Amino acid sequence: MKKLLLGILGALLVFSAQARLNVVATTPDLASVAKEVGGDKIELTTLARPTEDPHFVDAKPSFILKLNKADALIHGGAELESGWLSPLLAGARNAKLVSASKGDVRCCEGVRMLEVPAKLDRSEGDIHAAGNPHYLVDPENAKIVAHHIADAFASLDPANKEAYLANAKKFAATLDAKLKEWQAALAPFKGNHLVAYHNSWVYFADRFGLKIELFLEPKPGIPPSPAHMAEVISKMKAEQARVIIVDPYLNRKTAETVARSTDAKVVDVAQFPGGVKGTEGGYIALMDYLVNSLAKALGAPGTAPAR
Ligand SMILES: [Zn+2]
What we know:
The chain is an alpha/beta fold. Helix content is 45%, strand content 11%. It contains ten helices and eight strands. Helix 7 links the parallel strand 5 and strand 6. Helix 2 crosses helix 5, helix 5 runs antiparallel to helix 6 and helix 6 runs parallel beside helix 10. The radius of gyration is 21 Å and the shape is globular.
């Protein structure tokens, strides 16, 4: 009997050691960082597709089931996903994910948010009313997020704490090395003006000394109007902006129309690994692509090809 009990206990211990943390990430960039930190210790599901607008994700009923079974939810915490995530969470009824519990991993904690208005104003449909939520395209912020995720995983799964912390440290060290390379590649273009369709590049621009202050959308989430486009065209000419960047889910044709009137180039970009071809490898492959394609468009002599 004692032997049998010990056997059962042993089997249970093996089972619990093998049970992986069940993690859901809202967007593919957060998922990529979570994968760097969690490695094979986690089971990872990503909700938004890499080519999908993170503000307006198609909330499938299957997401509710995923959220119901999750031990942790990795999300931006800065209202990027609030429109579609809140109803899913309400449907999932998972006590592990409620606000401020261990499984509620708000990645913006510790990140210095930009464009936070002094007063909350959602008038005219501004979807960045609480500050700009697109902070992960700054590699320094990716480091902060990696450490934050590692702490969360360590607290949920103490047996693998050392592995999580070591993985985050390793990822941060890789980013430090790559950051030098990326900054060198974009250094010749310091102060150059670029135009974006949607205001999701302020953190990237700040990190690399670029100016991305002109947008085809008059306000985040508001479609371009002829009057606004005319204004953008005249400002582009004044600023000598020659590159318009467009995410996969936005209207490239509008960007092409503006480009024709200004002699500019349209460059396909993404904030999510897999959003444009060649970036499927993860966060670092994505940053490689962004830096190299922008350096090329801005007139650099060839830089290292994206991994
Ligand atoms: Zn946005």
